[in-house]
Amino acid sequence: GMQSHLQALLSLYKLFCPELVTITLPRKMKTYFKNSEGPWKAAISAVRQRNQGSSPLVQAAFLGTTQLQSRKRKWNSQLTVPASSANNLEENTAKNCVDLFSTNEIFPVEQLQTFPQLLQNIHRLEFPSQMGSVLTNPLLLHYMNCIRDESIYLRLYYWMGQVLQEECTWCVVDNTDEKEFKNFLETVYKAECFLQEGFSACEEFLCKSLPLWDGSSCRPEVFKLVSWIPLSSFSEIKSYLYGPLAQLFFTSSIYFKCSLLESLKQLLQNWLNCNMIYMDPEYDS
Predict the structure, then answer these.
(1) What is the distance between the terminal CA atoms of the chain, rounded to a whole angstrom?
(2) Are 39 and 171 within 8 A, CB to CB?
């Protein structure tokens, strides 16, 4: 029958091999297949507009997106730990009430200053509303390591993914502040080193942005993020990451080649260290 998804598939065949499809298809139909040339056209347009310097448009070259909203915030404005929202709410609404469960009350996260405080109140903390403050706070990073709360990681990855996408200097036309973006990538890298594991948001960012990377912008920081790619299947890494890096490798200077090899060597060491944690003691050798 003439279901909409079959019509879309037939129209795709008719576009590339018209001799295979002899039936007449309606002109207006639902789009099921995205244009594969979209990201490349957006990237070429971004380079052209950056060189001309005449267009104020903000155009993203990430897969699946064509235009980003204007950047309303700066990531480094959220590095201070804000007061706990739940704690403020409790003070305002239950000031005159007797708390029968005072041992379980929320410990204000902005008062967390020492490691002993973290140990004593680890089950009474509420994560701050501004996730940017977590990356530069060792105590909160310790908390992430100890309390495996999936909601915390989801919040952090969503926030980090948005910032990486909006601040990427080679994917957004009017974003020329490379120094600020470098500082953010360096902060993310230091947090990964502290946690001894990579962020999935960084892996997703690398998969989307490396095919459009010129090999020059933020090079040291990008290689540092590559060294902390989380453990996954080799087939996925080969297609999404090693393919674009190989193209740059064969056309770049000897310094680029050595830097990339050093990054991949560090990636292998990080993987081995992660595997050692979960290795069976019987197979130490």
Answers:
(1) 62
(2) no
| Domain assignment of residue 248, yes or no | yes
116-162: per-residue pLDDT in tens?
A: 888 888 888 877 777 788 888 898 898 888 887 788 888 888 889 88
Closest by CA position to 245, among listed 220, 221, 199, 211: 211
β-pair partners for 107: 125
Does 38 reside within a domain?
Answer: no
Here the tokens at position 259 are 């830097």
In a domain, 203, yes or no: yes
Look at residue 214 and tell me if it is in a domain. Answer: yes
Q: Are the C-beta atoms of residues 141 and 195 closer than 8 Å to each other?
A: yes
Bridge partners for 125 per DSSP:
107
Number of separate helices (H) and strands (E) present in the chain: 13, 0
Expressed in percent and rounded to 5, the helix, strand and coil fractions of the chain are: 60, 0, 40
Domain that holds residue 229: 170-284
What's the domain count of the chain?
1
Q: What is the pLDDT of residues 76-89, one digit of tens each?
A: 555 555 554 444 44
Q: How many CB atoms lie within 10 A of CB 222?
A: 24
CA–CA dist 284, 272 (Å, integer)? 13
